[in-house]
Amino acid sequence: MIETQRRPAGRRLLGGLAVAALALLAAACIFAPGKFISTLDLRKDRTFTFRYAGEVVMVPLQMSKPKPFEAEACHNDDYEERPCTEDELAQQKADWDKSSEEKKKSEAETTRLLLGGLDPSDPKAGEQIAEKLRRQVGWNKAVYLGNGKFDVDFATTGRLDHDFAFPTIEGFAMSNAFVQLSLRRDGSVRIDAPSFGLQGGAAGMGAMMGDLASGKSKEAMPGPSEADGTFTLTTDGEILANNTDEGPKAAPRGKALFWKVDPRTPAAPTALVRLAP
């Protein structure tokens, strides 16, 4: 009697857990920064001005190469590896085709939900999203460059009487924030830029979980980030904490914190600033 090797139970379990985790991370993997310059000016009276100019990568719109079929090893009764028969290879290929098609349909449906019903395979999807952005306040420029990449210029001025996050798009699911401001009751505000960190934060983790789900544990590492830019915070408030290399520097209207963002950035920018209560 001969039989085709099956995946070990542990690997199947790992794959199942990875797929579940990937589903939870899906909403956190819509956007990624490209080349950019971003600034945040934060005043003690809680007024602020934020700007992001440069590239935004919409991950679901990026084209990916389909994974080729790879036959699994076959074994005899003593679990010694042997050449697979033509029938076994044909069955493996049929199973792989079915699984790939089901996965493709599932991913397409999930992506449509994340993109407010837009079909990512539609060649017009990118321009439709750019048009949606141009309708929103703050998006002074939004041009689709192709392959999921947009050239944008976003700027807004307001008062911090509530939390703030960038980017958000009308009709889209909540996703990973490039920059987020979180107010505290003591008058301080925490500034985080999670997508400016190592491998784009959750997007990189999503890639890793995808490899784990396919059983490629040795290759389960995030791909190189496209981020290449700078993030500068200026404030006249009291800087309580930050993770810059050089700390606060004198600036015309107070002090400034500066972060260089690229694939070698060891940690996402973060700071804590005390404002007026």
**Biggest sheet record:** 7 strands, mixed
Query: How many domains comprise the coordinates?
Result: 1
Alpha-beta classification: alpha+beta
- The count of β-strands is 15
H/E order of the elements?
Answer: EHEEEEHHEEEEEHEEEEE
Taken as a percent bin, the fraction of beta residues is 25-35%
Q: What is the helix fraction of residues, given as a range?
A: 10-25%
Count every helix, treating DSSP H or I runs of 4 or more residues as helices: 4
Low-confidence stretches: 1-27, 200-224
* Measured distance between first and last alpha carbons: 78 Å
Shape: elongated
**Radius of gyration over C-alpha positions, nearest whole angstrom:** 23 Å
Mean pLDDT: 80
Spatial strand order of the main sheet: 6-7-3-2-11-14-13
List the helices and strands and how they pair.
Blueprint: E1 3-4, H1 9-25, E2 31-42, E3 47-58, E4 74-75, E5 81-82, H2 86-114, H3 125-135, E6 139-146, E7 149-159, E8 164-166, E9 179-183, E10 188-192, H4 202-213, E11 228-235, E12 238-242, E13 249-251, E14 254-261, E15 270-274
Parallel strand pairs: 2-11
Antiparallel strand pairs: 1-4, 2-3, 3-7, 4-5, 6-7, 8-9, 9-10, 10-15, 11-14, 12-15, 13-14
Helix pairs in contact: 1-4
Structure overview:
The protein is an alpha+beta fold. The chain has one domain. It is 25% helix and 33% strand. The chain has 4 helices and 15 strands. It has a 7-stranded mixed β-sheet with strand order 6-7-3-2-11-14-13, with helices on one face. The protein has a 5-stranded antiparallel β-sheet with strand order 8-9-10-15-12, with no helix packed on it. It has a 3-stranded antiparallel β-sheet with strand order 1-4-5, with no helix packed on it. The longest helix has 29 residues. The protein is elongated. The N terminus is likely disordered.
